[in-house]
Write a structure and sequence with these properties.
Layout: H1 2-23, E1 24-26, E2 32-37, E3 40-45, E4 50-55, E5 64-71, E6 74-82, E7 88-95, E8 98-102, E9 110-114, E10 125-126, E11 131-135, H2 142-151, E12 167-171, H3 181-197, E13 201-205, H4 208-214, H5 224-232, H6 236-239, H7 245-250, E14 256-259, E15 262-265, H8 271-274, H9 280-290, H10 301-308, H11 331-341, E16 345-348, E17 357-359, E18 364-366, E19 377-382, E20 385-390, E21 395-397, E22 399-400
Parallel strand pairs: 10-14, 11-12, 12-13, 15-16, 16-18, 17-22
Antiparallel strand pairs: 1-2, 2-3, 3-4, 5-6, 6-7, 8-9, 11-19, 14-15, 17-18, 19-20, 20-21
Length: 407
């Protein structure tokens, strides 16, 4: 019996060590900690001088919000803003039919956003417009996003839509990592209505990081968002629930969209997804019901295939390279997926490239560049031609996509 107990304890100890090894992170302040529960940490923070036990770090709050939500029949918003002495406080304020957004930058850049009562689900099939600008993986980098849009004629100095009947396609991962996730989303929210009024459109295709956000478990967030949780008493799940304005709006977005002869999906279409035989409308119907569920919360094998597995629409990397136990997509698979969806090419983000460019003999268009690192680019489709465009408004011929180091 003692021998069995020793073996059991040994197995338990080894298991615990493996869990700890998997969870240990080296924080930017140099302190080791364990992060077992979505941002809640166990360990010592040299930056804040505190020991953490399943708690968010007590980093100083920074300008953030507004997080708009309903309280009965009225709208309220949580905002974090500095007082006259520069000390940031969280406040809950009443909101009317519009909301003022202040960017967390040196200039405290401001813009105003009219709110909408309804967020009908976005269509997933569109005819070819006169021009398309496609961008992905902004990751909360508001300044880079604005520079790119302004330089290419999409918005003006007042953040107003100037793209006319053109379409702007955002291919996922607009959130996480950067310090201005909320202003990025409010700007997209605002431009969506203005584009529609001008005869154009904004298409927001969800990526894996939007999915994590809607599940209440964002990854790689800036520390300021832990300060927001501490200051408001609302965790990620509450700040991005279906009861919030941005949470409700994001849940109306698709995981793939077809515009003219181009399919847009953040990760891509894997052989496993293609084997379901579903068309774009059937896939969207599943995503509409399941996008904010965690894997353990859904018992649907189909939803797991489409949304949760490593080969899901938001997570697959095989159109770019091998990843997590599967090989790169074959030319035959690429031809089959294009034929199935009736398109000429598929456009993806998710996997970093040095410059936006082409793969699979021009059948795969890759957008994920390092905006935070000073490489801010998109792809312009105009008059039947594809261009690589940058944040100075210059146009270049599209070349072959070259991977950076695996993420």
């Amino acid at each position: 019996m003692k021998t069995l107990k020793r073996i059991a304890w040994s197995v338990a100890a080894v298991f615990l060590l493996l869990v700890v090894a998997a969870a240990v992170r080296m924080h930017e302040d140099g302190a080791l900690f364990i992060e077992p529960v979505e941002g809640r940490r166990i360990g010592y923070s040299a930056r804040t001088g505190e020991w953490l036990w399943l708690a968010y770090p007590a980093v100083p709050p920074a300008r953030d919000g507004p997080y708009v939500m309903r309280e009965g029949d009225r709208r309220v918003a949580w905002v974090l803003e500095p007082d006259a002495a520069g000390v940031v406080h969280a406040r809950k304020i009443g909101v009317g039919d519009r909301v003022d957004v202040v960017v967390d930058d040196a200039a405290a850049t401001r813009f105003s956003v009219p709110l909408r009562e309804r967020h009908p689900r976005d269509p997933v099939r569109w005819p070819m417009p006169e021009r398309i600008l496609a961008v992905s993986d902004i990751e909360g980098e508001f300044a880079a996003f604005v520079r790119l849009l302004r330089a290419n004629g999409v918005i003006d100095e007042r953040f107003a839509w100037t793209w006319g009947a053109g379409h702007l396609v955002l291919v996922g991962d607009m959130v996480d990592r950067g310090s201005n996730v909320v202003p990025v989303l409010w700007l997209v929210y605002k431009l969506e209505a203005e584009a529609r009024a001008a005869g154009g459109a904004v298409h927001y295709v969800l990526g894996n990081h939007e999915q994590y956000l809607l599940q209440g478990r964002p990854k790689h967030v800036a520390d300021k968002y832990y300060a927001t949780i501490n200051a408001t008493g609302l965790d990620h799940g509450e700040l991005w629930s279906a009861g919030t304005e941005l949470g409700r709006w994001l849940r109306s977005k698709p995981v793939l969209v077809k515009v003219g002869d181009t399919l847009f999906a953040h990760g891509g279409i894997s052989p496993r997804v293609l084997a379901t035989g579903l068309d774009i409308d059937a896939i969207d119907a599943v995503a509409a019901r399941r996008i904010d569920l965690r894997r353990r919360e859904t018992e649907s094998p189909l939803a797991t295939t489409l949304l949760q597995a490593p080969t899901a629409l938001t997570k697959y990397r095989g159109l770019a390279r091998a990843s997590r136990g599967y090989q790169p997509a074959t030319p035959a698979h690429v031809r089959n997926l294009l034929a199935h969806f009736g398109v000429r090419r598929i456009t993806i983000g998710h996997t970093l490239v040095e410059r936006v460019g082409l793969g699979h003999d021009g059948r795969v268009l890759r957008l994920d560049v390092h905006h935070a690192g000073g490489v801010s680019e998109g792809v312009l489709l105009e008059d039947g031609r594809l261009w690589r465009v940058d944040d100075a408004g210059a146009r270049f011929a599209l070349g072959r996509a070259v991977d950076v180091a695996p993420e």
